[in-house]
Amino acid sequence: MQRRKYIGSLIAAFALAACQASSSTPRIGTNPDVKPSWQVALGRPIHWMPLFLETGGRAKVIVAPDSDEVVALDARNGRPVWRFANGRRLWADSVAVLGDAVFVAGEGAEVILLDGATGLPRWRRSLQPTDATPLTGLEARSKPVLSGDTIYVPTAGVGSRARVNNARLHAPLVALDFKTGREAWRFQSDSYILRAPAADAQAGVVYVGGNGLSSADIDEGGAMRIYALDQTDGRLLWTYQSSDGLIKSLWADGGRLVFVAYRDFLVGLDAVVGIEVYRRTTGNWVQSFTPLPLTPAPSGLPALAYGSANAFLNLADPRDGRLIWQYNVEGTFNYPIGNAVSDGRTIYFISQRGDLHALDARTGALRWRRATGIEARDGPALGAGHLFVTGADGLVSAFRLP
User: Would you say 106 and 88 are in contact if contact means Cβ atoms under 8 Å apart?
Assistant: First the structure.
């Protein structure tokens, strides 16, 4: 099935390239108004998007290279503001900006909250239970979510470069106090990996999804569950099950819960009872989707932006999953990478060939495009009048917006 996806992508890409060749859309190429501001080499590949943080009136770019450190760079000039190293491997896929702090998880189920201004630990905790035998293989290998004064941390028993993989682990979701790191509660799931928690503070519910072992014969995907939990005590409210496989993105608001998983459907659930409301095809492989609070959909909810490997950037309404518009990326096998970002008027993304794009948020019309040559593995960050991009070569680049 996966092979057929790529064959379909190949056919679609050649067809789209032919259409584009006859299109009246101008070939913008490099936009001279989008100027490189600075570039810093960190020496190790960077596989995750940079994060923008402003504390104390100082703007910073947070980057986690494939190594044992997290680096904060001055957004104005790229100079290091602080570096944090733990002496052990840090999981780059766990790094998140939470309020005025930076969350990071390290080998051995350790989680650390860093002060965003100084990079010094505010607190550190081990997620290993203190009243039982340690859970072999337990790690925090996905970004947490902050809701109110609580951080919800997903865990896993498997992961790349982990010392121990334990697919029989019942991975917990752990609720930690933001100020102290004290554990409020943990929910023991039926999954060996949990990813992408989403919280609806108004409803008082946190959602998390993951994969579990199953004896069912599944053609494509894998046994997947989403759990809805009471934010106060972790009480299970409902469970949704499907064969969609590993979750890539999960989002909740306005009575709707939306996810994309391995099978690459955009799926919407009734967030109150966990019943599937819609299932929309995305056209091809999707890396993730991004809610854009400053870009409302017709329903009034934040629009969801996602790139698909058939060379489209899509904007969808999370209420019903219907497309608001599509933008066709120019070039064969040139599709959006990672998350898009928006300032409300313009949506920005980077493509597989390293081209930065700026689209009108209302219509999807191209405003400008700039070739960078960067081999990006994830989307850009936006802040302080710049787009910040990381690359597989270890470079962090800042581009001043027109």
Answer: yes
